[in-house]
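FORM 12-B: Structure-to-Sequence Request
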């Protein structure tokens, strides 16, 4: 299985210096049951199978990134297990017909939740930094009643932050860990296993009308790491509420600035209201 990884348009690379949308945890702490409402999602598109992270924000809706919902085929697999696999192979099922994606019946038979992906209609696919809108939702086939949904931040919550670099954010997801491989070149690189839920604490770096950026380096004296491949769509928390979703990273080794789509802005909040949020 491949983590969701997109290639940015050259104009975006030039404008923002980005290497790729994001991103699994660099550093960070195994989550256990600290954030039980953050789950892993898996899905197919025309090029194969991918995974992202997502957060339960109502009994029937998960919040994630648009690049984790756009172009998906069939249903999306959902699991809230904090440990998916300590080592390969992945336990996640293969679709009976990969060209059609998962079906609700086969995911239920395998013991997983399922849902339908929806993408923000103004998602710019990383081509318009003023109208990023990298947000999507998964509407579940059946409600989840044994996990408390995550609370959403109030509209404009991030606008109240006067000193981003003095503000600590928490990101949660199932991203890859950056470390030395057991064999081969010893340069730290993203490793697919263990596949577990982690959280990281990061100081802010910049806030724009669409985006929150953080310093995602585990060597930052005020932080514990950053997001990486597979954390895409996972939640960014501020004062115990979800204020954003993981969108992109600046470097291939996930050790620099991370970007998060804000969900506390009118263009996102109005769309989410259509899903009862």
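FORM 12-B RESPONSE
SEQUENCE OUT:
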């Amino acid at each position: 299985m491949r983590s969701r990884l997109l290639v940015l348009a050259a104009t975006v690379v030039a404008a923002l210096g980005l290497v790729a949308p994001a991103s699994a945890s660099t550093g960070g702490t195994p989550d256990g049951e600290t954030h039980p409402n953050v789950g892993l999602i898996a899905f197919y598109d025309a090029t194969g199978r991918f995974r992202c992270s997502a957060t339960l924000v109502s009994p029937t809706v998960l919040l994630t990134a648009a690049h984790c919902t756009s172009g998906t085929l069939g249903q999306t697999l959902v699991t809230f297990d904090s440990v998916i696999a300590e080592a390969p192979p992945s336990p996640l099922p293969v679709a009976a017909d990969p060209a059609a994606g998962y079906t609700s019946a086969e995911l239920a038979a395998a013991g997983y939740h399922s849902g339908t992906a929806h993408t923000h209609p103004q998602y710019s696919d990383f081509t318009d930094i003023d109208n990023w809108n990298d947000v999507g939702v998964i509407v579940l086939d059946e409600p989840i009643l044994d996990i408390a949904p995550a609370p959403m931040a109030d509209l404009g919550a991030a606008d109240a932050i006067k000193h981003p670099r003095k503000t600590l954010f928490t990101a949660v997801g199932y991203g890859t860990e950056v470390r030395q491989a057991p064999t081969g070149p010893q340069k730290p690189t993203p490793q697919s296993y263990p596949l577990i839920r982690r959280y990281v604490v990061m100081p802010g770096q910049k806030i724009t009308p669409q985006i929150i950026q953080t310093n995602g380096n585990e060597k930052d004296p005020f932080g514990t790491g950053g997001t990486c491949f597979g954390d895409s769509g996972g939640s960014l928390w501020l004062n115990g509420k979800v204020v954003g979703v993981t969108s992109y990273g600046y470097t291939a080794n996930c050790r620099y600035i991370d970007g998060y789509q804000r969900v506390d802005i009118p263009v996102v909040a109005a769309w989410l209201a259509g899903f009862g949020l």
